[in-house]
Design brief:
6-stranded mixed sheet, globular
């Protein structure tokens, strides 16, 4: 298995069949929809299978349920983050997606897929057809978390 690519600044790595690994040179801020701090750290593993008993964080439930999600993706909304700085803020939307703000590089563990954004909506229900991005599937499947 190849090593993960090295990126600096704010990052979100989609692990194949596993969580989103969010990192920062300064801080990853995880907050609820009312901006109440849930966790502040330099790295967090966020559930993307929808089955964690410790949502929004990964508890390895993806292994128990046999979660399958490739790591490669296409991003039609890529934008430059050159010259931008700031913390990576991840807002956990109740029964919905993870809303990411701040300059961020989103990439697959293999490095085959890479994009940069100032904002992104990431899937945490496990059903999006556009993983790691949210496509609204949480509404159809009645995701709770």
């Amino acid at each position: 298995m190849s090593e993960k690519p090295a990126y600096s600044g704010n990052t979100v790595m989609a692990r194949p069949d596993g969580p989103l690994i969010c990192g920062s040179d300064t801080a990853v801020v995880v907050q609820d929809a009312e901006a109440k701090l849930i966790r502040r750290d330099v790295e967090v593993a966020l559930c993307r299978c929808g089955a964690s008993n410790n949502k929004p964080f990964c508890d390895a439930s993806h292994k128990r349920i046999g979660f399958s999600a490739g790591q490669e993706f296409i991003d039609e909304r890529e934008e430059s983050i050159a010259g931008q700085s700031g913390e990576l803020v991840i807002t956990v939307k109740a029964n919905a997606m993870l809303s990411v703000s701040g300059p961020v590089t989103i990439f697959s563990r293999s490095g085959e897929s890479v994009t940069t954004r100032m904002r992104a909506a990431l899937c945490r229900c496990g059903h999006s057809a556009k993983k790691p991005f949210c496509d609204g599937s949480h509404k159809k499947m009645g995701f709770v978390g």
